[in-house]
Amino acid sequence: MAETGRKRRGRAFRWTRNVIVVLVLLFMVSLLIQFEYAYMPPMDKVLNPERINTDIAYDYWGRSITRQEADELLQTEEGARLLTPAHGAVEIDPEFLQLGREAFYKETFGNEIFSTDVIGFMDGPLTMWSFIRAIIANRGQGTDNLQVRVARDAIIGGREYSRGDMVNTGLDIVPGSLSVLGMKVRYSHGRIRGGITCAACHSAVDMESGKVVEGAPNLNLNIGKLIAFAPNSAGIFANAEIGSLDDLVSDASRTVTTSDGRTVALPDPELLEDAVDRVFMSWPPGSFDSTIDLVANPSQIPDSFTWQDHPYGWTGFAGAGPFMGLSVLNNNVHALNSDGISQAEASMDLFGFDKELTYAMVLQNSSRGRYRWNPESGVQPSEFFQRNNPTPPTMGFNEMVHTPSFPKGSLISPDGLFISKNGSLVWFENNAMSAFQNTLAPPPPPIEHVEELRSLGRDVFQTAGCGDCHSGPAYTNNRVLPAREVGASPSRARANANNWEAMIFPPTTWSWDTPVPVPLNARMLEVPLDLLDMDEVRMSYAQDERGEGGFKVKGLIGLWWSPPYLHDGSIAVGPDARTQVGIPGTFHAGVRPDPVNSLRALVDRELRKRLIEVTANSEELQLVKVTGTGHEHWVDEGAGYSRQEQDALIHYLLFLEFQEDR
């Protein structure tokens, strides 16, 4: 019997040992496995009409060169020399456009590390499993607003949430799919991470057709709330408004040593987190603050129907370089807005305090330990980051290279960085995305087109003076107008003022055939500025005489797909114009803005007056400088127009298409 017992114990020991060995092997294998996935809709799931501008063969510093023009140029020695990446030309062919589309839907440039490991996108009350359960519950039916349950009780920005509460995220799922549009999932080193691609903000599911509208803004994307629910939203404190840092200090013994050897008290992580959360929770759906001026002034996510809509950005700050500045705008998203460390080296110019304080504020409460800096470690936060930098030698989390001017910026890269992938070429994927976006045209509105009404609307458009500014192929004269002339909330117009101090002139870049990593002998090119009006460029950075800044004249293509209107997204009216007025009466009430009524509020002073009053009564909208003011060009009874003429103008605006230059 004793022998039998020893045999049983021996078998049990061997079984346990074998299980442990198998588990260890599985764990080791899991560390070696890498997997990533982001959904890209097949073309039969896309609602847009055929591509435009497919005859463009090259972009040469913002000039579009057709295939016929290219053929003629290539016959000459000088033309053949100019149309090379070594001299600034970007060749556009079907493969390049396909790469641009794939990057638009799938490329994060590595932002999943910052989103997951630093901010903790899935480590707060909205967990990874919260999202997985919500996706499974959708059962492939598709949605334009994924609702996710809160996993635990929490107070976010002063608002209480209980376990099981439903949160409207505004994230889209294409019918038949089991993944979020514009979200990339990556598994590596035993961890699941999530990152954001361009498509999360600049494409949307049309639930009526069940198809994707490429280039349409995601109108109800609740990105502010998604950021606020992360445990370290302070990782992008520069996109919020935090007031005096002294007011956020609770323990004077928690300090950081600055670059010049001074000792400075650190903001309390919880107080800092609460301060930024209150701002992020106040962003209206469909809005994002892409400027790092430490002022809460989010703007509406723009559409990506970009052809001839330059300069880009609401203030027109992006106008230099390839594709009339579109690559500058795209670069800004990944090199600045999804990496809170990328501008640390320019902290003194941008924020007025030392870079060590920026590194400390971003990293002191990181979600994952590898990137969490401890003030008691005795290591400066910049050195701590350098030891753990996932993308050396660039000081940032995302896949980037320094521009020739780094740490100073320039008009081709205000942040001094180019998003670029190892093993590729400088800005290759970024320029491809620009080329792709310039081929996008919106689908026609899903309403009846009445030619008589449209014809009358065209006449009203001209007699009311709309065409004075809204002319050209995309219905913009491509100007930047003074903020006081536009009359909109001026905060955003001044948002890029500090960037100017951190810039050098003339702007320079690496040639487009430069490999990544950038070699020491890389060719440097000076970026031509001959297509730019430098007075308007200065205005876009609030360097005009008054220091007030300006706003670009927005193109009018795709208005059906992009309500609400104006830069702050404040011109929003629901299907019932009596009760669903302003953001409080639409988004805050769970109602999507109606394009017809929202456009009416843009040109009807009585409806606008009610909208401004409702907006002014919202504390959270006042916090983020959303006002409902601006663009006071009326087409109403007070201006001598009938209701029929107003209706006709709106109908005309909704059916505008790209036109030949005139």
TrEMBL record:
Name listed for the protein in its UniProt record: Cytochrome c domain-containing protein
Key words of the record: Membrane, Transmembrane, Transmembrane helix
Listed InterPro entries: Cyt_c-like_dom_sf, Cytochrome_c_Peroxidase/MauG
Any one GO molecular function term: heme binding
Transmembrane segments: 20-40
Source organism superkingdom: Bacteria
The organism of origin for this protein: Desulfonatronum thiosulfatophilum
PANTHER family: BLR7738 PROTEIN (PTHR30600:SF9), CYTOCHROME C PEROXIDASE-RELATED (PTHR30600)
Residues making up the signal peptide according to the UniProt record: none
